[in-house]
Amino acid sequence: MLIGPSITLAELEEKLKDRLYEIKMDLPKAQKEFARLREEFKRIPRIIVADKDGEEVETINPDFIKIPDQLKEIEEKIKGYQEQQEFLEEKLEELETIEERSKGRGNINKEKEKITLSLNDCLKLGIE
What we know:
With 128 residues, the chain is of the alpha+beta class. Helices cover 65% and strands 18% of the residues.
């Protein structure tokens, strides 16, 4: 296991809340873009009729092929945001649980107690 940085629980909580806020701001934008592309896709003609050397030639509209790929990409992005949001909310809940369970016993001070994250944790939590 590769070891990442050691940070206080308070710093971790702050970084998780910041990342969660970013996701909550980006998710509606991605959803609007997805809805816009779906509506645009409905209006795009499948075949384009072009005049070539005096005769009409039917070709497939390149936008008709391109937009489904964009829709799939945005859909994956939305799914990723939702999974990250759920994961971050679980981790924030765990931090609150740790603090609540320590009351009366060791009284964990989030400002002083540190945690060492693995590089995998850093990637999952969006911590640099």
